[in-house]
């Protein structure tokens, strides 16, 4: 029996600008349901996102321990902290990818970014860090789509500006440590055409306007550019979109690491795939990265105090964490020692669970802090160390990315060693 | 040669070796401000000199322009001594080692054998002055000497002059090893002859260009300068770009990272668990600390090498025979 792909269509009251910075998002008054679309994320009554509910809403699967163990077995190395800690928590047919890998069949990775600003924050890095781990662990090629056209349309910026942002973002992406011998980065304005466009049309023919409206919430006032965009994001799911990499092969599976708000695009893609003779892409999905102010806060590119940026100096990191990171600790030292910290809402501990590699140390911190024996200041101090190391390492790598390197990553070229 | 050197023996030494100096007599002064009353009007780099000691009783003589800000906490970290590893040396040590009275700390005091294991750090600000001023082993005079003359004097006594940016706030962390730690003369000074310590100082200094060059391994081939967003935030102030993926640089960088991480771990472990198997205790956290850094470095290296090949390939296609 075919699994239900579309789940319950997610209704969204209005489409706002890009989700990346969450600015200008308008949530309908008296919203009963939580809203998760590629352009808007809001918890019920402005609260936390209920991820279990979301899985049911969308109709994807929870990523369980069996799969994680299997990944470790197959790759021969410990699973990435994001897997172990449940940051990547949902999937569609990830098990089929593992089956294929076990049989020696080839698959490739596909992820992307909407280049809406030149400031990237840690939340933006999360999918890329995970994708890099997948690339290294499974030794597979990766295509990265920069949807400059999407941002041009949704954020109403000029084509030139969006292309510029795409290249700037590419540098930060490259700095995450992708292997140039296995990675193809492309921007829509550069690459759309040829076989890619043919796939776009094949996909578009499978989706009615009404379906698109149901999935993405388009309204009569939306311009037709927006309506015709989804096939652009869907096309990279199929190997024939990249003849320079896969020739005419249709049998190479695709795994898409992304944040869960991208699920609608790929539900649509998975519905279309069998109708055009292609394999359905698999998905592995992450939670949203919380803002410094807490789960109900939104990270906004215009308010720099809500996030740690990859351009932040060590001093700025110290200030931001100390001043803005929402603490679940007690109001006073006495209360804290007595009742412990509320780990559910504490941001420093949450951030550590993303970025502190050592499981034992994280566990110890959670235990001690939860019991009130460890103070917020100490947790924040450790977080500052961890984030500073990460950010400084990123900046170093970023400084080494030249225009020529970006050109090389983005060149339409064969990758002879992409499975080596 | 255990007797204290004097002003006269110093000035004779300078004269005999063709090092020009002019000495100004004045009443005994104990502070920089008092000294300035008498010689402050003279053009050049007036100095303040601090003798500092660390927890292992190593001594560091910091000689800087009076206008240079000295932050002990920053220096302590840059020397790899932690946040508060530096103290002013007490008077008895100053007198025993430098053989000068209070208020008279001066690089010239390194002439004394007893001072052979003192590390000297000079303010790079001295280099741009026509002359620099120090006490000639006595508080009732100030001697002017050119920076070159100072260097010559130091080499005479078997030291290689080390100039650093004293004021610079270098944030030491897992990315940025203590940049001044390499200059700390070993505490087993008894066994280190002057020549040996001079050699050690020379070698270490000689390494410096390669070490700093290697921290970035980019290939910057054409003129089109990539816009670097990290001008202010990069821990390195190096903008040296090699024109090819730098193998030696990368190797040195890797070793540098390795040793710096090892240093950190050993210090922490020794403090906590003396007597246990240090090696095994250190190697795991060491690996954890190092792996992401090295991996990032090597991936950058690989991508750079590939890019060079790519550029060459593109160029060869359009190159006319």
From TrEMBL, chain A:
GO terms for cellular component: cytoplasm. Gene3D superfamilies: HUPs, Tyrosyl-Transfer RNA Synthetase. Signal peptide: none annotated. It comes from Riccia fluitans. Belongs to the class-I aminoacyl-tRNA synthetase family. GO terms for biological process: post-embryonic development; reproductive structure development; translation. It is found in: Cytoplasm. GO terms for molecular function: ATP binding; tryptophan-tRNA ligase activity. Its EC number is 6.1.1.2. This is Tryptophan--tRNA ligase, cytoplasmic. Residues 1-24 are annotated as: Disordered. Keywords: Aminoacyl-tRNA synthetase, ATP-binding, Cytoplasm, Ligase, Nucleotide-binding, Protein biosynthesis.
TrEMBL record, chain B:
Residues 200-242 are annotated as: Disordered. It holds the Pfam family tRNA_edit. Residues 224-233 have a biased composition (Low complexity). GO terms for biological process: tRNA metabolic process. It comes from the Eukaryota. Residues 26-153 form the YbaK/aminoacyl-tRNA synthetase-associated domain. Belongs to the PRORSD1 family. This is YbaK/aminoacyl-tRNA synthetase-associated domain-containing protein. It comes from Riccia fluitans. The lineage of its organism: Eukaryota, Viridiplantae, Streptophyta, Embryophyta, Marchantiophyta.
């Amino acid at each position: 029996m075919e699994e239900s792909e579309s789940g319950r269509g997610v209704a969204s009251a209005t489409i706002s600008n890009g989700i990346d910075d969450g600015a200008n998002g308008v949530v309908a008054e008296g919203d009963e349901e939580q809203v998760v679309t590629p352009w808007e994320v809001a918890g019920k009554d402005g609260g936390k996102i209920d991820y279990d509910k979301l899985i049911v809403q969308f109709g994807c699967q929870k990523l369980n321990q069996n799969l994680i163990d299997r990944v470790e077995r197959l790759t021969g190395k410990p699973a990435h902290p994001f897997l172990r800690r449940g940051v990547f928590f949902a999937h569609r047919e990830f098990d089929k990818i593992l089956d294929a890998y076990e049989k020696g069949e080839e698959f490739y990775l596909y992820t992307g970014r909407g280049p809406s600003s030149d400031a990237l924050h840690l939340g933006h890095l999360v999918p890329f860090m995970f994708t890099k781990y997948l690339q290294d662990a499974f030794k597979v090629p990766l295509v990265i789509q920069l949807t400059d056209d999407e941002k041009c349309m949704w954020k109403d910026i000029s084509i030139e500006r969006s292309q510029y942002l795409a290249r700037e973002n590419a540098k930060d992406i490259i700095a995450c440590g992708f292997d140039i011998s296995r990675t193809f980065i492309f921007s829509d304005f550069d690459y759309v055409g040829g076989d890619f466009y043919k796939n776009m049309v094949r996909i578009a023919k499978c989706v009615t306007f009404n379906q698109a409206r149901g999935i993405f919430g388009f309204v009569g006032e939306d311009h037709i550019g927006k309506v015709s965009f989804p096939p652009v994001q869907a096309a990279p799911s199929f190997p024939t979109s990249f003849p320079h990499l896969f020739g005419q092969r249709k049998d190479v599976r695709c795994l898409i690491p992304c944040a869960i708000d991208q699920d609608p695009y790929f539900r649509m893609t998975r519905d279309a795939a069998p109708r055009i003779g292609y394999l359905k892409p698999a998905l592995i999905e992450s939670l949203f990265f919380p803002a410094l102010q807490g789960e109900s806060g939104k990270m906004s590119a215009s308010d720099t105090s809500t996030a740690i940026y990859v351009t932040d100096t060590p001093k700025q990191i110290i200030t931001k964490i100390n001043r803005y990171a929402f603490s679940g600790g007690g109001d006073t030292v006495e209360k804290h020692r007595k009742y412990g910290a509320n780990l559910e809402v504490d941001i420093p501990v949450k951030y550590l669970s993303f970025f502190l590699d050592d499981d034992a140390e994280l566990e110890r911190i959670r235990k001690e802090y939860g019991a009130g024996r460890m103070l917020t200041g100490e947790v924040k101090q450790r977080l500052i160390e961890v984030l500073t190391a990460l950010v400084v390492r990123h900046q170093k790598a970023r400084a080494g990315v030249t225009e020529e390197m970006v050109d090389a990553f983005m060149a339409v070229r064969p990758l002879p060693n992409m499975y080596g | 040669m255990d007797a204290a050197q004097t002003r006269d023996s110093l000035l004779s030494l300078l004269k005999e070796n063709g090092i020009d100096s002019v000495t100004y007599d004045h009443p005994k002064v104990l502070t920089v401000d008092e000294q300035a009353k008498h010689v402050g009007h003279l053009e050049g780099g007036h100095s303040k000199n601090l003798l500092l000691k660390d927890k292992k009783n190593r001594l560091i003589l910091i000689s800087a322009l009076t206008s240079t800000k000295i932050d002990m906490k920053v220096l302590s970290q840059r020397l790899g001594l932690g946040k508060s590893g530096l103290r002013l040396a007490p008077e008895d040590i100053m007198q025993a080692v430098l053989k000068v009275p209070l208020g008279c700390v001066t690089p010239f005091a390194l002439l004394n054998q007893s001072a052979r294991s003192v590390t000297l750090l000079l303010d790079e600000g001295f280099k741009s002055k026509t002359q620099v001023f120090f006490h000639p082993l006595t508080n009732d005079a100030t001697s002017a000497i050119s920076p070159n003359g100072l260097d010559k004097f130091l080499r005479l006594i078997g030291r290689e002059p080390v100039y650093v940016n004293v004021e610079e706030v270098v944030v030491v962390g897992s990315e940025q090893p203590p940049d001044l730690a390499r200059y700390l003369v070993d505490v087993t000074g008894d066994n280190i002859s002057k020549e040996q310590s001079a050699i050690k100082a020379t070698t270490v200094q000689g390494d410096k260009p390669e070490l700093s060059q290697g921290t970035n391994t980019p290939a910057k081939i054409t003129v089109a300068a990539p816009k670097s967003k990290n001008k202010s935030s990069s821990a390195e102030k190096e903008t040296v770009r090699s024109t090819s993926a730098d193998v030696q640089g990368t190797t040195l960088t890797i070793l540098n990272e390795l040793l710096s991480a090892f240093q950190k771990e050993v210090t922490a472990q020794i403090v906590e668990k003396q007597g246990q198997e240090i090696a095994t205790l250190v190697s795991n956290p060491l690996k954890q600390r190092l792996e992401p850094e090295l991996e990032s470095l090597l991936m950058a290296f690989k991508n750079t090498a590939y890019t060079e090949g790519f550029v060459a390939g593109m160029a060869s296609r359009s190159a006319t025979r």
